[in-house]
Every structure is written in structure tokens, then in C-alpha cells.
């Protein structure tokens, strides 16, 4: 899950790099294109924030509070991260 977290949250992770490409495309477009791509980036940010927040809570809980990890939830979160990254293609 840590690798999936990094892919969606690190500035140089896959999501960060692709978001930069989308933003660059927006700057080259007209007002309509900018609006559409800006909306897409906002949607990705909202989805990423919710997912990354849950992931970091689990990772920190396990690392610092000795909480057990629910493997089913971790698998769901990884799948959601993969879906998020897949939506960029």
C-alpha cells in the first residue's frame, strides 16, 4: 500500500507527473479546454485526497499505534489507487 500511496501522493509519483502534463495541456488550450482540464484536475485532487488520507491513517496507525491492518481494506485501497491512476490514461 505504501507504493500505491507514493504513486498517488508524491510530487514525482505517477499522478503528480500526469497532473503536470494535464496542466500543461490546459495552458496551451482555449478557455473551454482550460475549464475542462481544470475541472478534471480538481476531481482528481478530491479523489486523491480522500484515498491518500485513508491510506496514511492506516500506515501511521500500524507504524506508531500498533494497530492491525485490515488486508481486505488495503486491497480495496490499492485497487482504488490503480483506478485513479488508470483514469489518467
| Strand percent estimate | under 5%
> Please, what is the average pLDDT?
92
H-E string: HHHH
What is the CA-CA span between the terminal residues?
Answer: 21 Å
Give the class from helix and strand content and strand pairing. mainly alpha
Radius of gyration: 15 Å
Number of strands: 0
What share of the residues lie within helices? over 70%
For the sheet with most strands, the description reads: none
What's the topology here?
Blueprint: H1 2-9, H2 14-27, H3 31-65, H4 71-86
Helix pairs in contact: 1-3, 1-4, 2-3, 3-4
Write structural notes for this entry.
The protein has 89 residues and is an all-alpha fold. It has one domain (2-86). Helices cover 82% and strands 0% of the residues. The protein has 4 helices and no strands. The protein has helices at 2-9, 14-27, 31-65, 71-86. Helix 1 packs antiparallel against helix 3 (31-65), helix 1 (2-9) runs parallel beside helix 4 (71-86) and helix 3 runs antiparallel to helix 4. It is elongated, with a radius of gyration of 15 Å.
Amino acid at each position: 500500500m505504501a507504493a500505491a500511496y507514493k504513486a498517488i501522493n508524491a510530487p514525482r509519483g505517477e499522478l503528480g507527473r500526469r497532473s503536470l502534463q494535464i496542466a500543461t495541456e490546459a495552458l496551451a488550450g482555449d478557455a473551454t479546454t482550460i475549464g475542462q482540464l481544470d475541472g478534471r484536475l480538481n476531481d482528481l485532487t478530491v479523489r486523491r485526497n480522500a484515498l491518500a488520507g485513508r491510506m496514511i491513517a492506516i500506515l501511521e496507525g500500524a507504524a506508531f499505534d500498533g494497530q492491525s491492518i485490515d488486508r481486505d481494506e488495503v486491497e480495496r485501497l490499492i485497487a482504488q489507487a490503480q483506478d485513479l491512476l488508470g483514469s489518467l490514461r
